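User: Predict the structure for this protein chain, please.
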Amino acid sequence: MEAPRQTFVHAKRLRRTMSLPEVLLWQALRRERLGLKFRRQHPEGPFILDFYCAKLRLAVEVDGSSHGTENRPQRDRSRDAWLAHHGIQVVRLSAATVLGDMTAALDTIGAVAEERRRHLPPPPASRGAPP
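Assistant: Here is the predicted structure, written as structure tokens:
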């Protein structure tokens, strides 16, 4: 899915200004401790996902305290619904969990990823070289 150019520009800026919980989770994810390859600050349609595993169509969002204020919960639900409609599952982790218990954060991601692996259809079979 293609994202607007401005979304790509904003994603690039966000990669340079990640929060501490995002940086710490990125350090753990990029070592592929879960056996998965993640991208950080990945543009998807009109949104930027904190972390995204393309193979499983799995997004991981790190939510700080602002996600519980004003209209953020409704915006997050609308965003998650849009992503689900496009086949992307979202895992939301609190920044406090990432900072306080990285093992629990990775276990949560790993459990959802394993469930996702079991339920995703297999990739189409290769038909080999054309005749």
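The chain has a mean pLDDT of 82.
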